[in-house]
C-alpha cells in the first residue's frame, strides 16, 4: 500500500497534511487527539481504554479515505460493542465509488 500510495505518506505530503484545522484545534483541550500510525485507531488500546474509562457507549466516525481508515475504524468500533454512527457528510475518499460502497455496506449491514 505505502509503495503504491507513497504520495499519501507524511514523508512525501508533509506533516501539515495531518495537522488539525484551526477550527478543530481550538477545542484541544478539553478534546484529545489520538495519533495512529496505521489504519485502525483501536490496535494500541489507548483510545478504547479512554472511552471505556469515561463510560462512552456511542462513537461517531468521520475521516478521510472511506475504504481504508474509516472502514477500519467502523469495524473496530462495532467489534468493541459501541453504538457506531457514520457521519456520511464528514468522510471522504479518493474514489467516489469507494465512498459510495462504504455507505452502502454500512447502511445495509449495520443500520437498523
Topology overview:
Elements: H1 10-13, H2 22-25, H3 46-53, E1 58-63, H4 66-79, E2 83-91, H5 96-110
Parallel strand pairs: 1-2
- SSE series: HHHEHEH
Total count of domains:
2
C-alpha geometry: globular
Oligomer: single chain
| Record field, number of beta strands | 2
How far apart are the first and last residues' alpha carbons, in Å?
A: 34 Å
Q: How would a crystallographer describe the biggest sheet?
A: 2 strands, parallel
Q: Which structural category fits the helices and strands?
A: alpha+beta
Q: How many helices in DSSP terms?
A: 5
Fraction in helix: 40-55%
Q: CATH H-level name of the largest domain... which superfamily?
A: Isochorismatase-like
What's the CATH architecture name of the largest domain? 3-Layer(aba) Sandwich
Radius of gyration: 15 Å
Our estimate of the beta-strand percent is 5-15%
CATH class of the largest domain: Alpha Beta
Average pLDDT figure: 90
Features:
alpha+beta, Rossmann fold, 2 domains, two-stranded parallel sheet, globular
Brief overview, please?
This protein has 112 residues and is an alpha+beta fold. Helices cover 40% and strands 13% of the residues. 14% of the residues are buried.
Describe the protein.
The chain has two domains: 1-33, no CATH class; 38-110, Rossmann fold, CATH 3.40.50. Helices cover 40% and strands 13% of the residues. The chain is built from five helices and two strands. The protein has a two-stranded parallel ribbon with strand order 1-2. It is globular.
